[in-house]
Design goal:
4-stranded antiparallel sheet, single chain, mainly beta, about 450 residues
Amino acid sequence: MKRIVVLILSIFTLFTFTNVYAKDTVYSLNKYNKETFKNIEKSYNSKNETDGYIIAGSYELNEESKEETINEKVIIVKYNKTGNVLWTYTDDKATEEISNTLGYTYDENGKINGYFYTSTKTTEENKRNVIVKLNLKGKLVEEKTSSLEEDKEIIKLIPTFNNEAKCDGYIGIANSADKASLIKYDRDFNLVWTKDYEEDANYKDIEIINTNGEESGIVTLIELKTENKQVKLIKNDLEGNPEKIIKEDFEQTDNPKLEKSDNGFIVYGYTSQLKLSNNKTTSYYLVNFNQEGEETNETVGNTPINIEKALKLVPVVKENKLEKYLLLYTNDLDSSIEVIEINNQGIETKKIKKINNEYYNILNFASEGETLYIIGQIKCPEEDNCDYNDNSLLIISDEDKVIEVKESDNTNIIIISSIFIGLIVLLIILKKSKKRTNKKRSKN
């Protein structure tokens, strides 16, 4: 009898802790007005061990003494792996707007020794583009001007590495009203060169091409300022010189983006050349290219997705080897946020995450083992009496806890749990009744 009870209790416990309705852990810094987290990277301690995540975004600071009452500011927050804030960095001396760039700084031995972000700073004296360096504890190390023209904004900066796997500088893209430029900095963010694109255009993305673990070239996406906003995919050498146009029939609505691969690179974005559920036509596409810029594989999704929401591909690397990708999008049928797994050949394998919550505006995410770190902004539900309208959002979620709990789901859990408990009680009663019957029979 005891064995039966233990078995049933074990099954019930397993169900309770693995049910698909388990809640995510949701954090909001709740410190400033209109906080929005936009960028996320792993964070490190002085031993160069990962100890959480560094998250960058912006907030609005009310200054009643000034005629213009709202200023946008940069906010950098370090969370540990369980969601506790370790430090926060802000700069209230000037109006700032963070760009798309958050990354690492390196010492001469190739170890991460801090973080950097790029920003446009406006003071009473001037407006300038800066690169801000922080140490691992979130303290300001240095603020350098970008050495670019005043109206040229850095869109993205990524580190470059030599054959000894040590950072030897940064390469990136910058745009202004009349110029799009490839830019190169050394490890201390001194400008080495800029190379302007010959046509009127804006750079959209840049990635390093790797061949057998070594950098072999640069690939860029650039949008021409024409009526149809045509986007070109260009292969460049490591000095930024164009070698060939790989593809030039992307449209602006395809919203192509770049991601790294082991031997080559990946382009992904939206495609509308589909017929999907409920007369929907838009899903994702993902194309693998080798190091020569030749297409090797293409995957097209079969789930309708919302093009107004974030589409983000994140590589999962283990022991310096690319294992798989995770892709985040918003399902256009039920407005749920989903994350799917894609193997390193670019083929969708399974869905691992689904969140039903209309108040989340998801912008980015990262992964640590089987845990997802999802960031963006949360809007106050109309029925709640919040002390904010829009605020920062960090969701920490195990992949197998796939659905955000709703009230109806909570009711289902209670009902199912009650049924389990009822079954246990019923089995115990039946077992005791059977024993009594057997005893009576033995006496007779």
